[in-house]
Amino acid sequence: MSQALVYAVSVALTALIQLSGFAVAFALQTEVFYDILGGTNFLALAAWSSWCSTSWLSNPRQIIATVLFVISRGWLLVFLAWRAHERKGDARFDGVKDKFGRFLVFWIAQGMWVMLISMPNLFINSSSVSRPLNWFDWLLVAGFAYAVAVEILADIQKANWVSAGRPGGFCQVGVWSLSRHPNYFGEIFQWWCAFALAYNSSEASSGYMDPLWWACILSPLFTMHILLNIGATGISNAEGKNLKRYYEKCPEEYAEYRKNTSILIPMVGYRHIPLSLKRTLLFEFERYEYRPGGSSPLQTQILTSSGSSDGD
User: Fold this and answer.
1) How far is residue 182 CA from its own chain's centroid?
2) Which segment of 149-153, 154-158, 269-273, 301-305 scores lowest on mean pLDDT?
């Protein structure tokens, strides 16, 4: 089966799942299975593309990529379903689910998200090429597995911290002591690894000449856009004005944590990195800082007052 046909059926399958889900959800006026169908859609595409492969059981790249994809999306399905149950609903849909057009947009957006994220895995499984894994491929596999593990660990540690009554006022346990948003790091990094891992599945003489492989870059780029730039979710939603509760409740402790802890990439020694590098290479953008009363960013004030505009 051609790669184009695998992609076309994947689009049709995604549309069927999401539009059917929307029809039932709108009729019942509920969002309870929105995330569940998102996760189910991912797993359905993984199963479909694996079934289409003529050599899946003898192709290590297809097996490894699909197993890691299923672990990642399976965990997401379980975690989001658990979180929705714990919260007794989803605030994103307040005032939306009774409006046909606006509610439909959520389901269409979820379908686009599922398709774009799945593109590297669809590309690998629909390829008729079976090249052995080289050392760089194994490095990408390790990176993919590491990113999935970080995301899962971050979710579990944060959930346990919340269950314990949110000690300290903000989460700084486990991987949260190395990154302020380790779950988002894991989500972003795994799709960059998946995109690169798909390179040697190209049916072209060189992956660089394959437009379908290049299209797979939409997977990590879309993820980064959603988690870094969209105000209703991701880092943009967690930082900025929503830091008010930390600066009001425990200002000195949180300012110190923020100064010492990377916004995204888990690392040690963050406080010693110049602010100019944080702003350009490490995603510590000024728009993520808290501005009390419309003044200049509070964290910049803290950093500059310590004697250097480039941090400690």
Assistant:
1) 10
2) 301-305
Q: Are 106 and 93 in contact (CB under 8 A)?
A: yes
Go through the chain and tell me how many residues it has: 312
How far are the Cα atoms of 154, 211, 224, 238, 246 from residue 267, in angstroms, in the given order? 14, 35, 19, 20, 22
pTM of the model: 0.89
Question: Which of 113, 92, 117, 141 minimizes the C-alpha distance to 18?
Answer: 113
User: Residues 73-107: pLDDT tens digits?
Assistant: 999 999 888 877 777 667 777 788 888 999 999 99
Question: In b/e form, how buried is each residue of 47-66, taking b as 16+ CB within 10 angstroms?
Answer: ebbbebbeebeebebbbbbb
DSSP E strand stretches across the chain: none
Q: Report the distance separating Cα 206 and Cα 195, nearest Å.
A: 15
CA dihedral 140→141→142→146, nearest 10 degrees, is 100
Q: Contacts for 202-206 with beta carbons within 8 Å, 24 or more apart?
A: 202/127, 202/129, 203/3, 203/127, 203/128, 203/129
Cα atoms in the Cβ-side hemisphere of radius 13 Å centred on 196: 15
**DSSP string for residues in 41-91:** HHHHHHHHHHHH-SSGGG-HHHHHHHHHHHHHHHHHHHHHHHHHHHTTS-G
